[in-house]
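Write out the bound-state structure for FE2/S2 (inorganic) cluster.
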Amino acid sequence: MPLTTLNINKKKYRIDVDPDTPLLWVLRDTLGLTGTKYGCGRGLCGACTVHMNGEATRSCITTVSEAKGKKIMTIEGFAADPKHPLLLAWLEEEVSQCGYCQPGQIMAAAAILSRRPKPTDSDIETAMAGNLCRCGTYSRIRRAIHRAAKGGDAR
Ligand code: FES
Ligand code: FES
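---
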């Protein structure tokens, strides 16, 4: 199989997989970056959300050939800055329950804030609508995004 170089979390990885392989499989199975989760595998739940050139992207329906040449960031790269306002806001608002959907939620939230630093409730609802949470943490997610947008104080 052809060798492909992927740029993930600012590092280059040379991988030997079929170009049609979903990026999610490479992240989790080839590279051991298991923070990105498998949910539906069909682009419907958001559990596998990463950034590709800064855009929230479903890694389960993105192939290696589509990811080639792009800057990929996963939750591991994002969490390299533990003082990031969004991560601190997530802790302050105690957003996570089981935690399974949360890496995807955080990556989607970060993408919104980079586009719209002061989002309204409706901006957040629209942008986060495709990220499902079986534990129902939606209102805490919204508060955490507002808190991060306000530099640490959501209220
Ligand atoms: S696992 Fe990718 S959107 Fe559900
Ligand atoms: S925190 Fe459990 S699925 Fe979202």
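---
The radius of gyration is 15 Å.
The chain is about 35% helix and 15% strand.
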